[in-house]
Design a protein that fits this description.
InterPro entries: WD40/YVTN_repeat-like_dom_sf, WD40_rpt. It comes from Zavarzinia aquatilis. This is WD40 repeat domain-containing protein. By secondary structure, the protein is mainly β. It has a domain of about 150 residues: Methylamine Dehydrogenase, Chain H (7 Propeller), CATH 2.130.10.10. It contains 1 helix and 32 strands. A 4-stranded antiparallel beta sheet has the order 1-32-31-30. Strands 2-3-4-5 form a 4-stranded antiparallel beta sheet, with no helix packed on it. Strand 15 and strand 16 form a beta hairpin. The radius of gyration is 20 Å and the shape is globular. About 5% of the residues have low confidence.
Length: about 375
């Protein structure tokens, strides 16, 4: 069972902080560009020298690094059946199993691999390679490629069943059936460049971050589109709440969460939280079981808040390098953060739970 969220009240959260939770740091041998966790809580890092490191929280100081790219990883995700998928600026893409077995999906080439995604439901992998999206099975067998889109592919995302793929590019998003990549895609149009994409867990909405520092969304059933503005930077980190209702986003000093219940967020203001106006949220991660979301900020701080409830709690103090990844373990018991300086932080939520109860008793 996942741990319960600390029982704090809104008036408590602007105190200096809750009594310290345990935050462990495990410095790595190189800068970290990306973080991923597979379905078995194995951890993958993309180092800034082209290697991918794989390890476990059972031995957090003992990660093993494997050669992946003659350059750097541009995108990293958990594989559909475990392990990790990485795409590089050398045009290569690899599937690395937990034991280090390396399966080459693409050899080095002229087109960068800007985006990767995997679906545990269908066992498929999608890569954004130049102006096309390419699909592979869990063993690394190539299944096909889309026709070229209007620009370089900047994001790929599967629908919940893993049978359709959203491909972000200039001018909007193209929706393809993974088994029919030679067919005509459904286009969700909107002018300008789209730099990231997510498909809602209930399959009803596709949302992108744009070059114009906005979100743009479409209701898939009837193509109704919606615009969500007010960001200070391009939105590159999304996370859906466990109940599939809220979409939390980076790109602002305040963590912003939009309510997608019913027909979507049109006409409703977002829920926001955050404690320092001068530093932007770089990464967000919704808890896998509970209605809370964590955010990492440019100053190294980590905060956590409830959806639809004012206020936040501080999980990690300011300090460390620029965050490059944020993720929960599958049971929601620990929160992980990586930085460009090569730091790997582990925040233990069980300790925070105990600390919150002790503070409540003292009042």
């Amino acid at each position: 069972m996942p741990p319960e969220f600390p029982d704090f009240q809104p008036e408590d959260v602007y105190a200096d902080r809750l009594p310290p939770s345990r935050v462990d740091c495990y410095p790595q041998e190189a800068g970290i560009l990306a973080l991923a966790i597979d379905g078995r809580d194995r951890i993958g890092f993309a180092f800034d020298d082209g290697r991918i490191a794989v390890g476990s929280l059972d031995s957090p100081a003992e990660f093993v690094a494997f050669e992946a790219h003659d350059g750097v990883s541009l995108a990293l995700c958990a594989g559909p059946k475990g392990g990790f998928v990485s795409g590089g600026d050398d045009g290569s893409a690899v599937l690395i199993a937990a034991d280090g077995t390396r399966t080459e999906l693409l050899p080095p080439g002229k087109d960068w691999v800007h985006a990767v995604a995997a679906s545990p439901a269908s066992g498929l992998i999608a890569l954004g390679v130049g102006k096309t999206a390419r699909v592979f099975d869990a063993a690394g067998k190539a299944l096909g490629a889309t026709a070229p889109v209007a620009s370089a592919v900047t994001g790929v995302a599967f629908n919940p069943k893993g049978k359709r793929i959203a491909v972000a590019h200039y001018g909007g998003v193209s929706l393809w059936y993974a088994g029919g990549l030679t067919g005509t895609p459904k286009l969700l149009p909107w002018k300008g460049s789209h730099v990231s994409v997510t498909w809602s867990p209930d399959g009803r909405f596709v949302v992108t971050g744009t070059q114009d520092k906005e979100l743009h969304g479409w209701r898939v059933e009837d193509d109704v589109d919606m615009r969500m503005s007010g960001y200070a930077a391009k939105v590159k980190s999304f996370s859906w709440s466990a109940d599939e209702r809220w979409l939390a986003c980076s790109g602002s000093p305040l963590v912003t969460a939009w309510d997608f219940i019913g027909k979507g967020p049109m006409g409703r203001p977002p829920h926001q939280f955050g404690g320092a106006e001068e530093f932007l949220a770089t990464h967000v991660a919704a808890h896998p079981k509970l209605p809370v979301v964590a955010a990492a900020f440019e100053d190294g701080r980590i905060e956590m808040g409830r959806f639809a409830v004012e206020g936040q709690v501080l999980l990690k103090e300011v300090g460390g390098g620029m965050p490059t990844g944020l993720a929960w373990t599958a049971d929601g018991g620990r929160l992980l953060m990586t930085t460009e300086d090569g730091e790997f932080f582990v925040v233990d939520l069980e300790d925070l739970k105990v600390a919150a109860k002790e503070q409540k008793k003292r009042k």
